[in-house]
Request: fold
Amino acid sequence: MFITTPKSALLIFVLLLASASASSQSLESWIEANCEDCPGLMAEKTGAFILEKGEEALMGRAWLAQHAQESIDIQYFIWSNDNIGILAAEMLLRSADRGVTVRVLVDDFLINAQDKTLLLLAAHPNVQIRIYNPKYSVGTSTWRMITNAILDFRGSNQRMHDKTAIFDSVAGITGGRNMADEYFDFDHEYNFRDRDILIIGPAVRDMRANFDEFWASALAVPVEELVRDSDLQVTPQEVQEKFSQLHAYANDPKNFEPEIRDAIESLSITFPRLLEAMSWHDVHFISDDPGKNEGDEGLGGGGASTNDLIEAVSQAEHSVLIQSPYLVLPKGGIELLSDLHDRGVTIKISTNSLASTDNLAAFVGYFRQRKRLLNAGVELYEYMPHPQIQADLVERYPRLADKNPVFAIHAKSMVIDDHKIFIGTFNLDPRSANLNTEVGVLIESDSLAQELTGSIERDMRPENSWQTTHEFNPDREVSRSKRLKLGFINLFPIESIL
Reply:
């Protein structure tokens, strides 16, 4: 059950914004009508609130999707065909039924919906679906997929890692979460400790402009165009049957727990402080161009988001605190941290251990760099697969405890000099630096920095993480078979695509 706390006050505010649907107002109109100071604040500043818990992040998206009146723009790296993925699709269809324009842009690499399912969803007059860089899945034969991987290795590895959800162009969410069970604490075996940030105000316009740029890119291909040459056909009857199936699925208590539905509904009558919990600042939304870079440097090349983060870290004067699920510093990265350490800057990094990681190949990259990072003066903290904090962060944990699911870091965040924060999609690895497009926000705020620091440092406590030193690492906390797999992958030169 969702419990109202001071930390969740801003989420409640945002969810209450969504009650604007009762009067058919857009979110922006409702804000202007119900908050005397907001138009002035939003003219120059952006309100921000950090979403730490999966259920909070899920309900925030649900309410905003339910009550947006004009547009919903969705951009994700992963959209799974699981419980959360299906419920999200159904929620968007409900919005489209109200006349909301829904645009969905999903990367092709890990999409698992069938081509016909995508066509059926896109058949709604208010829904458009585009696939980014379609070289593997949608409308692609096995032979074509293999050909793409061999003849266009760089292009096939260049993915859209962006994760944004934009509602009426006034409220937006970005961060580490993809649209799948494990990012919202609904998987029974493996869940991610993740983090999003919700913003309202001018920075959302920047987020929308970046979405529009990707949407108009030649890399974003309408799903209808991708399957045009196939024999795939959809009839009006099939479309209606699919929509009915989705609505029935969402109304089944087995798929959408009554406790969560009741919690969402009850928030509309809980009218605590509105804007008091919001933190208003100059928010810099960082992003890459479609394609990341020109591609003339092979698997290198950097990008706008890479440059923005390097500049921010380079200006550190006394401390850098980082949380990243994968820690494989691209070329020059360890040298940058070493130089900072030599200038007296304290550097602490929270990342996954071999026991918690979901990506052995990425861990190999970290495994190879770990001693160099320690030599550079970096303090390393590796997350436990069953940290004590899991019970606090996962609202549903009492119902999952018997399954004993692994809890692994997926948050991508940073605090610089106790004043500037970053929350977004950027992993500390060569793939994010050079191949994948990334997004996020940079904010100068003492209060948000204090909040984010407290969150990351809790994850680093002894009951949640092992501190790795020259004398100790927790690699032997896993089975021999997993260590053997690590050793096998370590034989291959894979750093550039990690």
In short: Confidence is low (pLDDT under 50) at residues 1-23, 266-275. Residues 236-251 form the longest helix (16 residues).
